Structures are given as C-alpha cells and as structure tokens.
Amino acid sequence: MRLKTEFVYLAVILDGFSRKVVGWSLEHNLASRLALAALDQAIVVRKPETGLVHHSDRGVQYASGEYVAVLEKHGMIPSMSRPANPYDNASCESFLKTLKREEIYANQYRDLEQLRSNIEEFIERYYNRQRLHSALGYCSPEEFEQQTKHSDSMTQFSSPSVEFFVSVKEKASTEMLGKGIQGPSPSPDPIPG
Prior knowledge:
Number of strands: 4
Strand content: 5-15%
Order of helices and strands: EEHEHHEHHHH
Strand order of the largest sheet: 1-2
CATH superfamily: Ribonuclease H-like superfamily/Ribonuclease H
Distance between the termini: 48 Å
Helix content: 40-55%
CATH topology: Nucleotidyltransferase, domain 5
Number of domains: 1
Mean pLDDT: 82
Structural class: alpha+beta
CATH class: Alpha Beta
CATH architecture: 2-Layer Sandwich
C-alpha cells in the first residue's frame, strides 16, 4: 500500500473456515516481525489447538526461523502455497482485493497512524461483522461463526466421516468379482473431438 511519501506493508491472518480476519499488522517494512505480529495477535484471539494447519504464501517471512518456531511452539502445521499457484491463497487474496477496493482506493491517508486506524475500523467493524460473503451463505464472518457455534451445540458430531457412492455398474461388477466372475470393464468416456 502506498501513502503519499512511502510504502507500507500489511500482513493478515484469516480463519479459513469463516474468512474472519483474526490477526493483522501494518509496518513500514516487510521484515519477519510484520508477519510475527499478525500471527501473535491471531494466537491470542483464537487460542488454537494443536494440529491447526497454518497456510501462507511463499514469502520469506513465513519461512523464517522465528516464524516457524512460533508455529512449532503452538503445535501448528505449516503449509505453503505451491510455486506460481495463486489459487492456494485465494481467500486471503480476495480479502486484500476487497480491502483495496472498499477502503484503500476510496480514501487518502495523512500518515501510517491514520491508515492503521482506518484499516482497524474496516476489519473489526465492517469486514468481520457486517460485510456479507456469498461463500458464507450471505452472512458476515462473525454471523457465520455464531450460526456454526449454535448448530454445533444443537448437533452432536462423533467424528468426521466420508462416504463414497458406488454406481450400479461398479456394484454389479464388484459383486460378480466376489463370486469369481469377472464383469466387463466399463468403457472409457469418449474423447471429445
């Protein structure tokens, strides 16, 4: 981001489930302390359990010894985007686009402190609490989390499960194989011309 006379940098940590901003930091440079400040804030706010997957882009600040040590201390599993694949970090990129379009480009800032104040207002009062997201059923991140907490307390989940659906053809073939009769292999889908 650019102020009248200088560039500044923003590090953001989103909750991947609700898209809520749970940590952020704004500084004059891209040193690892920028990312560490956002991570520290997220840890204080969320108090993550061991095993949380922490995904980031491939920035050197996220691979620094200090940053990795904090992840390890809190039992987080580091995950980085694949090289040249912006889709791995799409939710964060979407947030940054929204921030620029709805806050940064719409305003002029005297200095870093005014920018910091506006970003805090944007994140804490607007983005997390009021801005609707189509991916969240047109709820704000805060509202989505409240609905999820309410539905979780109403439903008892023993553990996650995955179900695979077998087509009638596959089922018949499997049953025949069990009886020592091999069914015909399904024909491959025709290649579009």
